[in-house]
Here is the input.
Amino acid sequence: MTGYIQLELGGKKRGLKFGNYALMEYSKLNGTGVVEFNETNPIKLCADLVYCGLKNNCFIKKQVEDFTYEDVIGWVDGMPITQITEVTQAFEESVKASQGVLEVQEAMVSNSKKSDKESKK
Here is the structure.
């Protein structure tokens, strides 16, 4: 479970990495919460996911982005269903992992608050 895939896009092999940064980019792009997906158009959703995965991969590897959102839309138009499935599966892996991390963080905060209350008694 890595949330990472490589696809042939724009004439070269490109990495898509899904993680918290990609989720934040998706949120900014669509004006939603970090794990809210209100998009009903599957083509736009796929383009958004590919774009955010590409941006995250460039961020992690400290690479200059050599694509635009418009480029990604064109690339997604030509993607076979097998690649679209790869994108969504990698993204789902990442979301599940992120949700697990959030649950652990919430539990830690909750336990910390309980300890604080008990120590004040």
Remarks:
- The radius of gyration is 17 Å.
- The helical segments are 20-30, 42-61, 69-77, 81-119.
